[in-house]
Amino acid sequence: MNGLKDIRITDDWLQDKTLQRLFDVLCADGGEARVAGGAVRNSLMGTGASDVDLCTTLLPREVIKRLESVGEKAVPTGIEHGTVTAVINGKAFEITTLRKDIETDGRHAVVEFGTDWEADACRRDLTINGLYCDRTGVIYDYVDGYKDILARDVRFIGDAATRIKEDSLRILRFFRFFAWYGGGRPDAGGLKACAAGKGLLAGLSVERVWMELKKMLTAPDPGRAILWMRTTGILGGVLPETHKWGTDAIPGLLRLEQEQGWEPDPLFRLMGMVRPDVDTMRALAKRMTFSNAQASRMELWAQAVSPKPDISNHELEKVLYWGDKQGLIDCMKLEVVHLVNREDETGARAMLALIVHAQNWQRPKMPVKGKDLIAVGVEAGPVMGKKLKVLEDAWVESGFVLERDELLATI
């Protein structure tokens, strides 16, 4: 299928003056350019476009030459694969020359540039990602992607096994896009090919694996995708920490997120699938090359112990003071999931109230410092440290209400 006669994108982003200026540059003197992939897909699904990527019949060096000739910045971000990033008025646009893959090894591809739009579409992964639109909004569909968008079917272009052999990351992309855009059950052929090719995932870098998992776990409702990944054994392959623990908490977790207005949080959702063990979390963070902040959060969650639902606010504040606030909140949120699963509505409501209190709580500052003890004759050293600890304990037990002079009077 070529241009779709009755379908046209009319979203404001396409009329953006900066984007239209880019079209002016690329479409002059016989050049041709179209918006490709995600922006087209999202507009047709009514979810709006964020990043706008373009494809062109121009070779990468010609793209750079044209941009620089009109005073615009061109960055050769992936020029060996045909990609140049244009920066115009502070906006970045990836521009990729039409191409076809002539050699692949499951991770990398040797490409050949061309001017064939259908060939470029057919080398892509999923039909819903294989559409283009021109500067007037006319849709070009060579892979029946529009039909799949309407049906919310996430399907590989052509033979699924072939697409996966070209790049095994497409297995995870299949589930990621199903989480975001799929309806009903996954495409049977795609699911079968992913299950058969799951051994290929071992050749991927952990950075690429975590990038896809994180994007999937950010979807509004990744529950069905996670279920099918577990059913096919793919989840256990990329996240062995889910073995003997599973994903039973995920449906309740997602339901609570919606009911309580909790923002989708990939790390929190990951916690719902793994055992809260410090050594396991350290190993997971190292293997997945988490950032220091991500690794710390997972470890502190594993260390935390959820309070009982009937704990007082004062007792909760003591736990918060001596522990880690985020780790405890993560732990308490998961405890709500377990309470709901046990049909303990009273406990769940009480725990939710405690979570709100914890989220609003700000850690107070200890009113007595070392210099205050020196002023009353206490020498610096181990003795001072012990006295400060005794005073801090008394201050916390008081509900953080004892003031500096009251504490010093107890020395």
Strand content: 5-15%
- Number of strand segments: 10
The whole-number mean of residue pLDDT values reads 94
**Low-confidence region ranges:** none
Please work out how many helical segments DSSP would assign: 21
Give the spatial strand order of the biggest sheet.
Answer: 1-10-9-2-3-6-5-4
The CATH class of the largest domain is identified as Alpha Beta
Q: Examine the coordinates and then state which fold CATH places here, giving the name of the CATH topology of the largest domain.
A: Beta Polymerase, domain 2
Number of domains: 4
Fold and architecture overview:
- The chain contains 21 helices and ten strands.
- The protein is of the alpha+beta class.
- The protein has four domains: 1-151, Beta Polymerase, domain 2; 159-238, cca-adding enzyme, domain 2 (Orthogonal Bundle), CATH 1.10.3090; 240-363; 370-408, no CATH class.
- The longest helix is centred in the last third of the chain and has 17 residues, at 325-341.
- The termini are far apart.
- The model has no long low-confidence stretch (mean pLDDT 94).
